[in-house]
């Protein structure tokens, strides 16, 4: 089936005119009709737009034009990325009716490539969560086991690629929101270096951490999407003006001479033993292929979650001050006065986790507590970053598990926020240091749920990360496995 | 590190322009106290001589004087057209004569 294929395979077929982009859209939408009511990965479907964009791509292919690698490729977009004319809710009731008057820079870049937008995907409200259960709209189900969560916050974007209801997708990663759901849904997900991709039009959560990145069915597609979205942008002063290489040049099936560090601090008793085994087998594969694998130490790893849950909520409390019922979104209709309107609008419009983080961040920044909490966390961030700086003096790439557990049951962690926060223990350290990180499928636990291998690089060393990921993928079969979605079962 | 009380939660809620009933206040106090207790782990770290990191690219820092050697990013000060007013106001819950509408903040007679 066309919907199962990778973007680079489909590009060859489109170029050779074996298929049309319109037929590809129809194939993806037939798959959506078959499984989406069980997976629930999408908040908005944009078939009319998709068909129009596909016709446009077909016209180019028919004329024999040199078409970009993503022309005519159906892609899904996390609902935190502004799409002009298409509702963008951030999974929140407070943005229920928000239709952006502009495109995010990544969308402008993708449209220039001629991509086809399938729809907008479900997410934890304002990207705050690790299971996509914090969406104000619906719960997304993991295609590998519909009783389990897809991870989060980009759970919809991971699930639709896993379920073959999109060829690829974009998500955003603040503390692991691309890498963790990619691991739990058995797909490839990458957070580029902070500053690689413009955040213009990405609705802000924690501005010093947020980064957009791709979900794909293999590492080659990941490189193609990175080529399309990376680059500095005058509209985002935090995007960094460094040359963007052609990432497909990093798709080298060879790791000889590369040094891979495995940090001992990630192998704690909290790590699922089957995941530990799976990751150790993965590093053994890389060692057999000629890489040097050595144990390293990142001594401040255990402070990453505590640091994250000060810095991210502090930045969020400032960023989310803009939702006041004045310029866009939901407004309480019966306020007694202006301040009352702000309070009622925000209290009715935000969900519980968002309120919890706004409270935590406001507290950490409030008079008398700022030094003890916010400044302390910024100093801890320096220590965590210094660990990585020292490690990358010795090794090229760091390999770890992406998530301490496989996908957990829906509802299992919702009553205990702290337990949910600990889901990000393997991904937040690299976020603090702004590092590029990828999660690639590296096996399955006994009950059939996928396991992800996280590979981290020094800032702007996406090339080395992709090379190791590509070599691993070319020499293993895990990424070829597809979930059998139980379309007969009760949901 | 200190913990948080129900009065503290009410104070912070007001700063954040949120409001909670008594039950929600209790609930948030309990949960925030537990999270702050976990965060107290940071006190194990000796950080007197550690500089803070607000941003990971030291050559490109945007907060005045935040880090030594920081180059500020500036763009030419040229006026460019912004988005049309009517396109922006489409998303406003209340708009009137080209402005955002809000509940009355001053008396008509004063």
Task: Describe the protein.
- The complex is a heterodimer of chains A (491) and B (110).
- Chain A is of the alpha/beta class and 491 residues long.
- Among the domains of chain A are: 250 residues, Amidase signature (AS) domain (Amidase signature (AS) enzymes, Alpha-Beta Complex), CATH 3.90.1300.10; 77 residues, no CATH class.
- Chain A is built from 15 helices and eleven strands.
- An eleven-stranded mixed sheet of chain A has the order 1-3-2-4-6-5-10-11-9-7-8, sandwiched between helices.
- In chain A, helix 4 links the parallel strand 2 and strand 3.
- In chain A, helix 5 runs parallel beside helix 6 and helix 9 packs across helix 11.
- The two termini of chain A are 25 Å apart.
- Chain B is mainly α.
- Chain B has one domain.
- In chain B, strand 1 and strand 2 form a beta hairpin.
- In chain B, helix 1 crosses helix 2.
- Chain B is flat.
- Chain B starts with 5 loop residues before the first helix and ends in a 10-residue tail after the last strand.
- In chain B, 16% of the residues are buried.
- About 9% of the residues of chain B have low confidence.
- At the A-B interface, helix 9, helix 10, helix 11, helix 12 and helix 13 of A face helix 1 and helix 2 of B.
List keywords for this structure.
heterodimer; A: 491 residues; alpha/beta; Amidase signature (AS) enzymes; eleven-stranded mixed β-sheet; globular; B: 110 residues; mainly alpha; two-stranded antiparallel sheet; 3 helices; 4% strand
Topology (elements, then pairings):
The complex is a heterodimer of chains A (491) and B (110).
Chain A: H1 7-15, H2 21-39, E1 42-45, H3 47-63, E2 74-78, H4 105-113, E3 116-121, H5 155-162, E4 168-173, H6 179-185, E5 188-191, E6 211-216, H7 219-229, E7 259-263, H8 273-288, E8 292-296, H9 304-319, H10 338-349, H11 352-365, H12 371-394, E9 397-401, H13 417-421, H14 428-432, E10 437-444, E11 450-457, H15 462-474
Chain B: H1 6-15, H2 22-39, H3 85-89, E1 95-96, E2 99-100
